[in-house]
């Protein structure tokens, strides 16, 4: 059963695929930021309960340096605040992405029903053909989706550079 896919529908399918990739990447990034925040908060708690302040060392790049407890506390507060800001941005972006994906899902499922699979984490591509059965389902236009992904890759690279910049600024 062949399905006629309009250019507009093809564009929505490619956009959903691109957003799906972005969604997965944002989830991964949020998980990493959450882990980094947990580590910083643990370090902050440990710094507060240390009996001898000279036992605390501050990591600067690949080295450790002695610092007074006030300096260490200020540095940890600064790093935590910076990570929390980036995490908030990522969560906002994730919600916006999720909202747009939901809107696209509604339109695409309304148009194609069960002939299209738009579940989270599903990479759109050629449908799988079962032995002895005719190929069914939708396949996005490869060139259009590639262009959409390339524009998202550029956006992702800019975001990663911005994160790296924030990391450098928040690291002593």
Automatic annotation (TrEMBL):
<dbReference type="GO" id="GO:0016272">
    <property type="term" value="C:prefoldin complex"/>
</dbReference>
<dbReference type="GO" id="GO:0006457">
    <property type="term" value="P:protein folding"/>
</dbReference>
<keyword id="KW-0175">Coiled coil</keyword>
<comment type="similarity">
    <text>Belongs to the prefoldin subunit beta family.</text>
</comment>
<dbReference type="InterPro" id="IPR002777">
    <property type="entry name" value="PFD_beta-like"/>
</dbReference>
<feature type="region of interest" description="Disordered">
    <location>
        <begin position="118"/>
        <end position="172"/>
    </location>
</feature>
<protein>
    <submittedName>
        <fullName>Prefoldin subunit protein</fullName>
    </submittedName>
</protein>
<dbReference type="Pfam" id="PF01920">
    <property type="entry name" value="Prefoldin_2"/>
</dbReference>
<keyword id="KW-0143">Chaperone</keyword>
<feature type="compositionally biased region" description="Basic and acidic residues">
    <location>
        <begin position="118"/>
        <end position="137"/>
    </location>
</feature>
<dbReference type="InterPro" id="IPR009053">
    <property type="entry name" value="Prefoldin"/>
</dbReference>
<feature type="coiled-coil region">
    <location>
        <begin position="73"/>
        <end position="107"/>
    </location>
</feature>
<dbReference type="GO" id="GO:0005737">
    <property type="term" value="C:cytoplasm"/>
</dbReference>
<dbReference type="GO" id="GO:0051082">
    <property type="term" value="F:unfolded protein binding"/>
</dbReference>
<feature type="compositionally biased region" description="Basic and acidic residues">
    <location>
        <begin position="146"/>
        <end position="172"/>
    </location>
</feature>
<dbReference type="InterPro" id="IPR016661">
    <property type="entry name" value="PFDN4"/>
</dbReference>
